[in-house]
Write a structure and sequence with these properties.
The chain is built from one helix and 24 strands. It has 358 residues and is mainly β.
Length: 358
């Protein structure tokens, strides 16, 4: 049995360890991952990430949270993606949070796409990107002030866009796969959060019990906030068509939008524009799927075709897909289930439905 002095000493040691744990890792136990935009443990960084827009709509900016009070702001000529941006010109600016204000300075030096270190991070594979200029500025509250290289000042206000198809009701004849009440349409890997009533992959990929061939599908998803993660480790999931063709789900907010990022038909087709919203924002996919066609001898005569709207904007327009994406299963040209991929991250889903085509 320990003496009272020994007990007191042990208690002191535990208190010190607890204090150091909080100091090093934060008071919460989420290890840098958040799934609820109302979570009181969200760091101060969270409120500065997001989209900003000038009053005339001709200058947009996407502010990416990189963790540890660091940011990269991506200034876009013409407006935001899918709403005026010219699709080419970008200006990258580094940001640091101090005393509830983010100070921005020109991104410079050696940079690599999605580098773990914020001072080497680039949101563009090409650095400097086309259109790069030495801009600086500040973010205070919901106002982003940018000082241009010719000493002018641009003022942008934070804006929260919502998909035009958010909350879309299943049309008559739709197969409702998930409406928050149960997960009966899916296999046993489907999880239902008892409080939020949201769907999530629970320890494995989840597939519908029913198979489909040609259809229109709607799904709404929310990415985790993982500011310290990069690339494929940042809120990774996928929406597989007939268990064979993945439309990537990933936190690619502010990035180039390549074929393995959000909206990409994984490693097959690059989206026309990166329409990824910031993490912890509800997003939508609306998919028109036409399966591959087999001849009488069982060989493929036509490739699969996919159209996708991401947050209401067309990112794939009748794209031809020449074969299954990585992880796809089953013979092309045959019906298959819809899959919501489990990739180690708790991406959440709601309002999932399908309308079959004849």
């Amino acid at each position: 049995m320990l003496s009272m002095r020994a007990v007191g000493f042990c208690a002191l040691i535990l208190a010190v360890v607890g204090f150091l744990g909080v100091a090093l890792f934060g008071a919460d136990d989420n290890k840098g991952v958040w799934t609820d935009p109302k979570d009181p443990s969200l760091p101060a960084d969270f409120k500065f990430q997001g989209e900003y827009l000038s009053e005339d709509g001709k200058t947009g900016c996407q502010v990416i949270s990189l963790g540890q009070k660091a940011f990269q702001a991506v200034v876009l000529r013409g407006g935001l993606p899918g709403a005026g941006w010219d699709g080419t010109n970008k200006i990258l600016i580094d940001g640091t949070l101090d005393d509830d204000k983010v100070t921005l300075k020109p991104a410079a030096g050696e940079r690599r796409y999605l580098d773990k270190k914020s001072d080497a991070f680039s949101a563009s594979k090409k650095f400097p990107p086309v259109g790069q200029k030495d801009y600086s500025g500040t973010i205070s509250g919901e106002t982003l002030s940018i000082k241009t290289d010719d000493d002018k000042t641009l003022t942008l206000k934070k804006t929260v866009r919502k998909s035009a198809t958010l909350g879309a009701k299943p049309p008559e004849g739709a197969v409702v796969l998930f409406d928050g009440s149960n997960v009966d349409a899916f296999d046993d890997k489907a999880g239902l959060d008892p409080e939020s009533k949201l769907l999530f992959p629970n320890g494995g990929d989840i597939r519908t019990k029913q198979t489909f061939n040609n259809y229109t599908a709607h799904v709404e998803f929310m990415l985790q906030y993982m500011p310290d993660a990069r690339g494929q480790g940042r809120s990774n999931s996928g929406f597989y068509q007939v268990d064979r063709y993945e439309v990537q789900i990933l936190d690619s907010f502010g990035l180039d939008g390549i074929d393995d990022e959000c909206g990409g038909i994984y490693k097959k087709v690059t989206p026309k524009v990166n329409m990824c919203y910031p993490p912890l924002t509800w997003q939508t996919y609306d998919v028109e799927f036409t399966n591959a066609v087999l001849g009488e001898d069982g060989t493929k005569t036509k490739n699969t075709r996919i159209s996708v709207k991401h947050n209401g904007v067309v990112i794939h327009d009748d794209a031809e897909v020449d074969g299954p994406t990585a992880g796809g299963s089953g013979k092309e040209g045959t019906p298959g289930p819809l899959q919501l991929q489990h990739h180690g991250n708790r991406v959440q889903f709601r309002n999932v439905w399908v309308v079959e085509k004849k």
